[in-house]
Design a protein that fits this description.
The structure is a homodimer of 344-residue chains.
Chain A (H helix, E strand, L loop, with lengths): L10 H8 L3 H8 L10 H14 L5 H8 L4 E6 L5 H16 L3 E6 L4 H13 L4 E4 L7 H8 L4 E4 L9 E5 L1 H14 L5 E4 L6 H16 L9 E2 L5 H14 L5 E4 L2 H13 L9 E5 L13 E5 L1 H18 L7 E4 L1 E4 L9
Parallel strand pairs in A: 1-2, 1-3, 3-4, 4-5, 5-11, 6-7, 6-8, 8-9, 9-10
Antiparallel strand pairs in A: 10-12
Helix pairs in contact in A: 1-2, 1-3, 2-3, 5-12, 8-9, 10-11
The structure holds a DNA duplex (16 and 16 nucleotides).
Chain lengths: 344, 344
DNA sequence: TTGAAAGCGCTAACAG
DNA sequence: CTGTTAGCGCTTTCAA
């Protein structure tokens, strides 16, 4: 005698059980008893019936009727990347607090997929969208902003006056990191960059140049290598740079994955850190302190990134207007450990 | 002249534009033209109208009507934990391939929150649910299974004949790790356990005992400490064990977070790894190989965990029946590096 | 080959 | 204080 796929209880059944009309039942259960001056007897009987039948209203039907889905959409380049995962978490928690649910999708670092996912999410009538753009295309995003759908961009933004964006202060971070290297006496510094032409990468490059300029030291762009934020790119770029320019004394990796690759390449080339090579990386990591050479790094406040984004989205939904500030910069923090050696 | 929140185009408008009825429009666009023998002229005019108006059907309305939401729900104890994030990713990708969307939620390692989130998801008429249970309560899960809603448990399962579960082979992994320690001459081995009474923890403990029994060596349960899978627990447990039983020569951490804590505690107590203390951990990590003492570990195939779970869910949805096998065990892999020293 | 109409489950305007 | 009715946007009988 196994109970099979019993259809969920509907409001209609609750109303019938309580001996009232559909609308009364609806009102009693959605806290509008007061407003409609429903007798407390009636209200109670409806509530009791609902409890007895284990009624759970169909959010689907409610959404269709009210045109409010209480749904957010998120598009991330890679959910498994701890950086994006941390962002997703803060958003999910903020959503839960506000009785929203979150559709999380993975664009696999692919712009076309991103466009497709955004469409998919729109078809589900989401009330707000947060995307960490891959960074290649952006018309689909400006279009959404134009349609007044609350939208927040995180990490990789665009310079567009109607796009609300929250990113780390990449420029200041890179400037500080480079300054540290320069002050430690390094002059030939290899840059392991990430995905070119994305905002974080571009701004970090700017920061690097600024630091050089500030000290009146010439910067050689030939010392930039790499094309992604992943381990492979770091490995290849470090290998290339270290072979072609053995005079390099320090490496600045634009992500901890890049740093990992650099570590591997340096190991293979027999260069010990920090003795034979200094290393600094963007993105801190719990393990960074326990590495053979505890890694000095620029720490992004990832949780803050997510939290601010979620709040900006919630704000837009509540007020129906864009926030005053469009570009939000979250400060970064230099974590000085032992992977940099003073020279010269 | 800024375009304001223009309401989305409905099928009705498309039908009107194409000069056909609502039903014809619906049929033409949902690939049922053949079945209904709609003239290709009509079909084309509908498609053209839809394209011109940029029509995107409301999945909400479609879901309500068809009673199929194409929605999955996921509940994770902590989205930001790379382990769960990796699982989430595989599920999301599988979902995307099958035109499903995924509602991802975070229970914050809290059973009551988990119960609440599951209810919330059910109210959204999800077609399938994957949960990594906190592990304390389970009635809400057996109830769901009884209602025949496709459900898959990942990582922390329960021994229940109707619950489809996929976990790593914790027992074999712990057995192998312990065996390695024993064969390296260690006899006094401290166990840094995770959350007690969860399936992974319990099974790992069983594996440890089995390894001891196999070699006819007595195991002292007093050498077990810890109460969580996090860094703090590892730190405290390691500190306690190492102080109370200085004769300990090796530590087996039940998670990489626990291992991190152990690393910190060992450092503070002046015990170098591997010279003064051997260490092995459950859960591999990209950085593990680059630690001061490259960490030997038991590697779970997390992607596989997620992928198998997603497939099992998809299978249930398609067939409408539970899979033959209820308990799925994913093999683990021993990554031997340099954190264990041979002694005795 | 196409259209009219019912209805998924809910909310809200209108009517007592 | 409560009920009747319309309708959110779509799919799918039933009818022609």
């Amino acid at each position: 005698m196994s109970k099979s796929t019993s259809k969920p209880i509907t409001l209609k059944q609750v109303a019938a059980a309580a001996g009232v009309s559909l609308s009364t039942a609806s009102r009693a259960l959605s806290g509008k008893a007061e407003a409609y001056r429903i007798s407390s007897t009636t209200e109670k009987s409806v509530r009791d019936a609902a409890k007895k039948l284990q009624f759970s209203p169909s959010l689907l039907a409610r959404s269709l009727r009210s045109q409010r889905t209480k749904l957010w959409g998120i598009v991330l380049p890679n959910i498994a990347n701890p950086f994006f995962a941390a962002i997703a978490r803060e958003i999910a928690l903020t959503a839960e607090e506000n009785a929203f649910s979150v559709l999380i999708t993975d664009s696999q670092e692919n712009s076309e997929t991103e466009v497709h996912l955004v469409e998919q999410l729109l078809a589900r009538q989401i009330e707000g969208l947060i995307v960490c753009p891959v960074g290649i295309r952006n018309q689909h995003l400006t279009k959404i902003a134009k349609q007044k759908l609350p939208l927040v961009l995180v990490d990789r933004g665009f310079d567009h006056k109607d796009l609300v964006t929250v990113t780390s202060d990449h420029r200041a971070g890179a400037r500080a990191a480079t300054k540290l290297l320069l002050e430690s006496g390094h002059r030939t510094i290899g840059i392991l960059q990430g995905l070119p032409d994305t905002l974080p990468n571009t701004e970090r490059l700017v920061g690097v140049r600024e630091a050089f300029a500030l000290q009146n030291i010439a910067f050689d762009p030939a010392l930039i290598a790499g094309n992604h934020f992943d381990e492979t790119s770091g490995y290849q770029a470090a290998g290339k740079l270290l072979s072609e320019y053995p005079e390099i004394t320090a490496l600045f990796a634009f992500s901890n994955q890049n740093a990992l690759g650099a570590l591997r390449a340096a190991g293979e080339l027999g260069r010990k850190i920090p003795d034979d090579l200094s290393l600094i990386a963007f993105d801190d990591h719990p393990f960074a302190a326990y590495l053979a050479a505890p890694l000095t790094s620029v720490n992004q406040d990832v949780s803050q990134l997510g939290r601010v984004a979620a709040r900006l989205l919630m704000g837009q939904i509540k007020t129906g207007a864009l926030p005053e500030e469009r570009q939000h910069r979250i400060p970064v923090q230099l974590m000085i450990r032992a992977s940099i050696m003073k020279i010269g």
